[in-house]
Structures are given as C-alpha cells and as structure tokens.
Amino acid sequence: MAVVGVIGGGQLARMMIPAAIALGIEIRVLAEARGSSAGLAATQVGDYRDLDTVLAFARGCDAITFDHEHVPQAVLRALEAAGAAVRPGPDALLYAQDKLLMRERLGALGIAMPDWARIESADDLAIFLTDHGGRAVVKTARGGYDGKGVRVVDDAHDADDWLAEGAVLAEELVMFQRELAQLVARRPSGEMRAWPLVETVQRGGVCAEVFAPAPRAGSATLRAADELARTVAEGLGVTGVLAVELFEAPDGRLLVNELAMRPHNSGHFSIDGSRTSQFAQHLRAVLDWPLGDTAAVAPVSVMINVFGSLPEASIRTALAHQPAVAVHAYGKDARPGRKAGHVTAVGDELDDTVYRARAAATCFDS
Amino acid sequence: MAVVGVIGGGQLARMMIPAAIALGIEIRVLAEARGSSAGLAATQVGDYRDLDTVLAFARGCDAITFDHEHVPQAVLRALEAAGAAVRPGPDALLYAQDKLLMRERLGALGIAMPDWARIESADDLAIFLTDHGGRAVVKTARGGYDGKGVRVVDDAHDADDWLAEGAVLAEELVMFQRELAQLVARRPSGEMRAWPLVETVQRGGVCAEVFAPAPRAGSATLRAADELARTVAEGLGVTGVLAVELFEAPDGRLLVNELAMRPHNSGHFSIDGSRTSQFAQHLRAVLDWPLGDTAAVAPVSVMINVFGSLPEASIRTALAHQPAVAVHAYGKDARPGRKAGHVTAVGDELDDTVYRARAAATCFDS
Hints:
The structure is a homodimer of 366-residue chains. Chain A is α+β, with helices and mostly antiparallel strands and 366 residues long.
C-alpha cells in the first residue's frame, strides 16, 4: 500500500483523508498538536521545524507532502538528501515561501503580474509610491497568508517595521474587475490536469466565496488561465496541486497575484463539484500516479467558507433547510475569524445555486 | 461533536469514515482484528459477541450502529438497557437476522414475496417441492450472506444437514426478469428518503454490478419500489439505511428477496453518483439528523465490484485508462472471491458508462 506523509494537521490534511481512504492509500499526518483537524490520521505530533522529528516521520513514506508551506528549506533539503520524495520539492516550494523570489521567477517566465519592486528602504518605497499614484500594496517576502503580512500603504514610512527585518515586496494596487483562481495538478513525470477557472470573492483579505466555473468567462480567458497555470507549474517544477490566484484587469488581462503549492481554498468546490477532487488529485500527483478527470459533475458549484465555528445545532439546521447542500466541518475549536468549515452547493444554474449555498451558510451566522 | 460508534471494521464501516469527516462527526469503530478495513477509525479491537467489550465501546457514543448484522440480540438488548441509542434497534435487526421472522413480518405488512414456508423436516420440504415444480431455494434462518446459507434443492433430503440445527426457510424459485434493489433511509423521528431504484446483477450469489437508476424501469415500478421500501422501513421500525433486494417478476411485480439494515453493496454507487451517499445518510439517520437529498449527480451511475485484491499497479492502470472512473479500495488482504473494492463510473448515457466502468474493472482481472 502506498504511503503518503503529510506535514501539518490542518483542514487541508483532513480533507486528504477521505481521498486516501477511497484510493487505498495509507495517509500519515505529522500534526502540530493533539486534537488537530487531521487528527484521525495523525501518527506523530511534533514540530515541523525540527529535522529529527521530520526525518523520523518521513521514514516509510513513499512521498512527503504538505498542509502548509512553512517547512524550512533546511529541513526540506535534508529530507531530500535522506532519500525522501518531497513533493513539491524544496526548489519549487521556495517560490511559494518567498514572494520576492516568486516575482523574479515569474518575470523570467514572461508571466503577467502587477508592477512590483524589491523594496530595501523607505526611499525605495517613496520612489515606488511616486511611480504608482501614491499608493501601493506592501507584502513581507515570507510568512504571510490570509491577509496577514499584507498592507496597503500611502506613506514611504508605512513599512518601516517590516523593513527593519529585511527587504519587502511592493506591488501596484491593481484596480481589478474581480479575482480568479486557476488550479492545476502536475505529477513528477510531467502529466498535468487543470480544473476550470473559478472566481473567488475575498473579504478582509480572506477567501469568502468561490464560483466554479468563473461566471461569464469567455473561452479566451479560460484558455489563457489554463495555459498560464501550466506554464507556472512546469516552470517552477511544481508537483501536486498548484493554485494560481489571479486578478482580472479591466482590459481582461490576467495578472498573477499569489501562488499556493498545495490544495487550496479556491479548489474546495471540487470535493462535491468535480469528477476528481483537488485532494484526490494531489495524492495521485505526489505519488506520481495517473491524474484524474477534472470535469465538473454539474454546470455550477458554489463554495462558501464558514468562519468561527460550526456548532452541531447549526449543522443540523443547515442540513434541514438545504438537504442538497454539502456541509464540511473541519473539527476545529471555535475561534473568531478562523476558517471552521465550508458549504458547497452544485446545480444547473448560478443564481439558484448561489442562493442555496448562501442559505446554508447563513445558518452558521452567530 | 456527535460521536457514532460502529460495530464491525469492514468496508462498510470504512466508507462511513469520509462521510463522518465531512460532517464533523467523530466515528469510532469496534474492529474484529488489527489491520481491518476500517482500521483508521478503530478505537477498540474486540469481540462484538462479548457484552463487556461492547458496553465499554459504547460509552460516550451518541449512537451505535453496525457494519454487519451479526451482533447477538442479547448484546443489543443489554446495550439498550444500558442507555445506548442502538440504531437500528434490536427489534428491527431481528428481522434482518432471522429470515423466517422476516418472511412472517413482511407477510403481515402485505408485502409481495416469493411463496415461502417454514420447514422443520424433510417431510415439510417434500411437500413444498411437490407444490413448486420439484425445485426450491432453501435458506438457513440465520447467518447467511453473499450466497452462503442458500441452496437450490430438488430433493427433500438436500437440507438434512441444516434441518439438524433447526427450522429453515423454503422459497419458490422465482423465474425473475432481473434483480433490483431499493434503498431508503429512515431516522428515528420518522423522516425517510429513498434513492432511485437500481438494478443489481449477481454472479454466484454475490453482487457483481449495479446500474443506477434501474434501466427501463417505468414510473409505476419506481413508485411501487419506493413505497414498498418505505412500508418495510416503517413497518419494521428500521433506523439508518435499509436495502430491500427485489425480484422483478415476468409480469412486472416486485417480490422482496432479502433485507439489509445498513449501507449495502447496491448503494455504493451513491458515493460518486448521488448528492448524498448512503454512508453520509446512514450517519445522519442514526444520529436523527435531517436527511440529505438523494438525487443523482448524473443521469447514470454504474458500480462494479472487484474481488480478490486491488494491487497498486492495477489501481494505477485503471486510473490511467479511465481517468473519470472512481476507484474504491477496501484496504484488505488479498483473498480469492473476497470483495476487495469497487469502481464507479457516472455519465450521461448507459452504454458508455457501462463500458467505462467495465474497462476500469477489467484492470483488476488476474
């Protein structure tokens, strides 16, 4: 039986478990703590920054993959040196870990992006602001996610605290029409499969809703997004699922916002809405197994995140009011603003499907 | 978090795990042995016939349900007396455990069945054979499944070995057109939801293929099967999933062959082919949660069982040849004739969907 080790015990690892069960894959999770979201498959609890812990965990695994992108490069490289199949590998993960390197590499691949610059000082930022209408997005090169490590600035000294730690990334504030995401999976032997382009709606820098496929997207846009994601996956040597977060500019151009090298919130719809979910595909890809069909099971899927908590009483209410909506709970302790679960509706028509998904999600409003 | 305890660690318990993960339900399995199919969720290994073992297992569970119907009545009743929510309860399970009682009860409910008789002796059997053209099906009242405990006889002494143990059931040999199965779920508070009628193809007394919905079934047949299953579920007080195996007689009448009070092989298609799978529905039903929509996600689903083993190389071959077919492995040791997994294809059209499912299943022929 093939064995996949997942570093990190969050909801992404949790949602890999059903896919592993179906495919007869043994899944082992290195969790940060007891009672984690993926606790059912946790074979070890420990610190993913500790090389000995990770080496012990990796023993006997056919592939090592991730719930998050925070494992230090030194640990990743030592794992590879010890013979582990690390997927995605450290060379690829580096671009997900360091936004400055990511921008440089995407530039070399000819991928369209917002204007950006490496900022070493307040003077650098002053120049960038002057060149971009007095406002910019500043991001820490490392460690940011879900709106953390991101700031909109209009003063050259607004990033002084971060600059004290090192260089940051400045990007033009793109006046986009909307945000999109393109998911693709790639296996080490090269096969790639992409899902249809989706629209993502962010609130407070965090994904709130996803519409699959992206409404009103023309065939040229769909093709461009698909090709772009494949170029990035191949160019960066990604194995497993790659999520490319995109801005759709007013002129229709697609600009790369962020990359994630793992199953991604924008692909959760695929559990209920696709022939092959992103979690099943990720396991197949990291094991270098043949990839699955990514076609939709219905014309429309709508995914809505639930934050804070999913009390059992609310789950029952949602199931009673919307018997065709799928509820996914992450088994986490309640915490304000934390992703606690999601709901997915699939249907024939956008308005009705959005209505049903929102009606279910509303049951979790406190 | 709601807790469901499942007695038995086979593939039915295994396939409840993904449903529990999605719904945020904690699932605990009392397995017969280490390394069972549902081992990932096994919290205890022990003998389900031992009352102390089962009582200890049941502590802290909001509902107790089953992977099989073999738990002795004395254990079931002691569990209930200790305050456990046993679902289905012992009164219902009795009819799944004893085919003579089942026939009597179905008769009282006015359900159509093959002609049958309680046989206490070779003389009884001789009379039954004379009345039914010299041939009959004889079944042990208890303990039979998957073709075991079933025998076609043409001599009054063909069941002497079984009669030495007690009364048996004789049934007329029905010259049916085909076999069908109707699944329904019922929760303690009364809500019921049925899936569309399916056709099952048996080989050697074991389910080989399932077509959902049953091809060429008219609306009268669909309605009759739905009503029949609801009558049985309510009449027998079943909670959870009930599978009613049916013969379709040459004149179109539906005759009840067997009952199963748990998720059933004829409902495996629902994992990939229905909005709510039989495993999710079973968990919802035994917890008395609102039931889910049983509508199909595609016009046709075809499920084919795989026997013996699912070697990893064959899984890869099947996935490569049929990227849209779902492969389900049960994580069991190889054994000739044993159900080791299944494949499901969903599609718009029967012939193509059957072709794809069989093409995938063929990869496991040794």
